[in-house]
Amino acid sequence: MAESLLAQNNLIRAGVMGGNDGILSIAGIIIGVAAAGQSRGNILLAAFAGTLAGMVSMAMGEYVSVRSNHDAQQKARLTQQAALVRDYDGEFDFVRQKYVTAGIAPELAERATQEMMAQDPLGTTVRERFGFSLGSEISAFGAALVSFLTFPAGAAFPMAWVAFAPRHERLAATFLAVLLALLLTGYVAALVNGANRRRGALRNLLAGLITMLATFGIGCFFH
């Protein structure tokens, strides 16, 4: 159940980050190109091209990141397999001493270590030395696919405002709508990760504000 929850939370995280990056990246492109005085068609063309590039970039980034984590976990597994063959008693003492250091009574730590090492010595030592449970690997392909799909979903939000907002309201409407969306995605990301929700929302808002102001300034420079 815990492993299933971990995998589910990772997919949610990938989805939130994909949608958030879609909103922020494409809003930055739109505001920068609009500030340069381009037509609605050129703005949407730039946004569409950015969306295609962002979909692939996000998916590949998620895949490589998760696969790298898998490789590190596999290395830990092999390291502990060799360590148990080479020095089982040393690994046993490491686990027992860790429990004692954590405040467990020596007799109870000894008994708990005996039971866990008898049932699953590899899983026990990997968990205590490296901080993860074997079998809790998350899907690299799943994370990549979710990011691939949610990036354009996020990107569609600022693109829709540009497509339908009146010309004289285009920048202001996109700017305000994107800030609200970033507050929401920052809140959801913090909720999924167990972080402070208010702080997460405000941090995401600040990052988006800086990005859009920077691209607006660059666009004005090239106007």
Mean pLDDT: 84
Distance between the termini: 56 Å
Structural class: mainly alpha
Summarize the helix and strand pattern as letters: HHHHHHHH
Strand content: under 5%
Measured as a percent range, the helix fraction is: over 70%
Looking at the structure, what is the overall shape? Answer: elongated
Discrete helix count:
8
Low-confidence stretches: none
Compute the number of strand runs.
0
Biggest beta-sheet profile: none
Structural Rg: 24 Å
In brief, what are we looking at here?
The chain is mostly helical and 223 residues long. The protein contains 8 helices and no strands. It has helices at residues 2-35, 40-86, 88-101, 106-119, 121-130, 140-164, 170-193, 197-221.
Describe this structure in words.
- It is a single chain.
- This protein has 8 helices and no strands.
- Helix 1 runs parallel beside helix 8, helix 3 packs across helix 4 and helix 4 packs across helix 5.
Entry keywords:
223 residues, mainly alpha, 87% helix, elongated
Furnish the topology, listing elements before pairings.
Layout: H1 2-35, H2 40-86, H3 88-101, H4 106-119, H5 121-130, H6 140-164, H7 170-193, H8 197-221
